[in-house]
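Case 431 in the screening queue. Each case pairs one protein sequence with one candidate compound; here the compound is magnesium ion. For every case the pipeline is the same: read the inputs, emit a complex structure as tokens, and attach any notable structural observations.

Predict complex for case 431.
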Amino acid sequence: MALVTKKLRGTEDVLPAESYRWQFLEEIMREQARVYGFSEIRTPVFENTQLFKRSVGETTDVVQKEMYTFDTKGGESVTLRPEGTAGAARALLEHGVYNDGLPVKASYFVSCYRYEKPQAGRLREFHQFGLEVYGTSKPVADAELICAAASIFERLGIDDLSLEINSIGCPECRKKYHAALKEYFASHEAELCDTCKGRLERNPMRILDCKSKICSGIAKDAPVILDYLCEECEEHFKGVKACLDSAGMKYTVNPRIVRGLDYYTKTVFEFVSGSIGSQSTVCGGGRYDGLIEELGGQPLPSLGFALGMERLLLLLDSKGIEIPKPEACALYVAALGESAEAKAFTLVKDLRDASLHAQYDIVGRGLKAQMKYANKIGALYSLVIGDNEIEENKANLKNMTTGEQVEVTLGEDFVSQFTAIYLDGKTGSPV
Ligand code: ATP
Ligand code: MG
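Case 431 output:
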């Protein structure tokens, strides 16, 4: 039978046998978010298109080429979120959360949608974990945010990501810098791609982030923003570096980082890997001091980062870092005959009520096939019950690793008997 359809290009399924890998990463991220003082925010998958145009920026690749935008039946233009910050900022603003005391620290897990050319580490639906801090302009906040990201990599045992930082200044520094960039790129105008030709007038900094080989080749020799920082931005950048130094964080200053979204100001940073090919930025972030005002709020200095889950998984694979498998089934109860089946059902329910992972046959297999299945799922113990066992109210509990057996009773204290044996086995003295 032919399938009606298959998954769309650039999308991935996470199957039941693999999802523990995602859950493990999410758990570490949740824990690090908690110790750094962040609480989760959840926002809709789609928003008014205007939100992303205003925040991400009209001249970015994301807005110009990559957004999934469509008109609803009501005639509204909506867009599937291409990133997580805009929705979080919109929601916090809309609900007046910024009035309840600053800073506001929010974390998020989001699926994102960008119509890009699919390749390893580049999907059309991908997932990000992110942290956002609103209401502080202090350099220590930038350093704290970077440390929070680094703490996740550290907990995962990843030690070869390089942290690259830069400052891309404020609108004040940009005036002079834009003029210098325009002059430089104007002398190469004929060679630039069509998109970048259009950016020359409106936003020449975007040319620095163009993925076309020719444009990025030209951009290599372009003036760098660090030479154009105003005093305040210069001081801020110094402050960030000093905090990172005092935290013992290693970094390199890469004056070529500009980030792909328009809302960034001052600090920008990336965690880059040398082992996952050309989609090498696992995590990117920085400051966006103008974003909240752009969205209609009071000026509110803010910052954040987003970490690509798929790229992180690729990185773990490439480094051979294994993610611990979830706990196997503690007990498989195999049953033969109607009354044994009924007993298996209640025994397993009692075990589950005591928070133990237990299973039995729900598809109608014979005894041999049930045991084969118990092996397949890696059950730690098994119990076979038939008419005799029911009659005597006793059965043999088998340790599937050692083959050792011990008699247990099937009455009310079955769960406590099993729990004692199971916990004993876990601490290294199997039955
Ligand atoms: P790139 O330069 O690789 O396109 P970006 O600057 O567009 O990245 P951001 O918008 O800052 O990336 O998103 C933060 C992180 O999200 C990236 O560092 C990456 O890990 C991940 N990411 C971005 N786009 C994709 C994608 N299409 N597929 C998978 N992950 C992505
Ligand atoms: Mg991109």
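Case 431 observations:
- Residues 260 surround magnesium ion (ligand 2) (CB under 6 Å).
- Residues 19-35 form the longest helix (17 residues).
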